[in-house]
Write the structure tokens for this entry.
Amino acid sequence: MSGRLLSAANFILSLGLFLLLWQLAAAWTDSPALPFPATVLETFFLAVETGELPYHLAVTLARTFVAFLLSMIIGSSIGLVMGRSRRVDRFFDSWLILFLNIPALVVIILCYIWFGLTEVAAVLAVSVNKIPNVAATMREGARALERQYMDLALSYRIGVWKTLRHVILPQLSPFFAASARSGLALVWKIVLVVELLGRSNGVGFQLHLFFQLFDVPSIMAYTIAFVAVIQMIEIFIFKPWERHANRWRS
Amino acid sequence: MNWLSIEVARKRYGPKSYGQGARADGGGAASEASTAVLENVVLSIEYGEFVCILGPSGCGKTTLLNLVAGLDKNFEGNIALRATREQREARIGYVFQSPALLPWRTVGENLKLVMRPDQTGSGVERELLSQMGLKDCYDAYPGDLSLGMSRRVALARALVIEPDLLLMDEPFVSLDESKAAELRQLLTRFWKARTMTVLFVTHDSREAIQLGQRIIVMAGSPATVQRDEMVILTPEQREDPLYVEALRKQILNHNRS
């Protein structure tokens, strides 16, 4: 209990120091380019009240969610196949390296050129950016699968579905968690760029607008709101799931 | 007709389709350098027999079991397993050298995983576990069990499917003698209670004599069948050091000549 109290105190202190430094820096520069924390907070509440921030946040989150889901499913499947079959791995390895190294911006621009400034193009662009990362991580996981458990599944003929669910996926869960974590962080950042370049709503679009208006308080307010939401996802979804997946480790 | 007929002309170790071992040896070149592990292993086994396969560690006994289990189909020869008397496909239970229990599933779930669809919800796994003295382990995770308990659970998992053929690969290795003896008795009890064929691999001749109706001695590189002996001893004689030593001498001496 005291440990939890201590970590709470730690958090408040560290946050307080950050705000203090921000306050001092804002006072020192005395410029609209670096607003005071209070100004940002005020802007935040105003944007919430008008419903603007929740709307754009929701749109961006929806895109993030779909792109995240798509890249996890497709990336995991590719990674699994590549990790299990040496022939496939050897053949497609250079493809994977190519896709891993294409700049996100190039993918986004090409998607918009090929598929138009549409929702599908936007989500696709984000997924294509993330899929190679997921595939590379999951390939490592698939390579590390234990032979003895595969032998078990094969000799008892438990079937593909049960093998996947009870034998393979539990072994992959640490790799899945790692790629989901880094995946979410990457995906939402790319979503903003996608929105900035070719959408008419979402946080990225708003940021673009604020950039043109030199509205720094709004830029900061949106950023803080978004970071807070991502942290919540981490705390309320990823952490509990990980605890559940690791319940057998005593 | 023989129930299980094993005819392995030759089994080589070449590159496999998956696993770290295959990755390490790098493929192509390795197939030329592959060595034969088994050669001319021909055995015919009747339904209900208890057969011990005795041989030094690393001589290819596990490989043979994997061929019978159908885990490895890459060999020259033929292995035929006939249908049971009820005219259904024979069920195979396999107790591996390591317990190979899924650590992320409880003991009960580990058993349920291999059970047949028609067994689900019947509670046979709970009943079997309590018959084997594992009643309190039902909800435990394998990581919390001792090695002796894990081996017992691994045996339970193989038995729960009511196998026609039970493959056992040094299932009681690295247990102290009293624990191993306990498990051997348990196994004998179950074998007598149900009709099933047991193929029991061991490097311990005393263990083979205690358990087997028939002992097949394998040795050499590539391994071949050196001897195929019926063990005609009463259960009491199997426990008697005098009889055991006499038979051991007979089996092992012959082996050397």
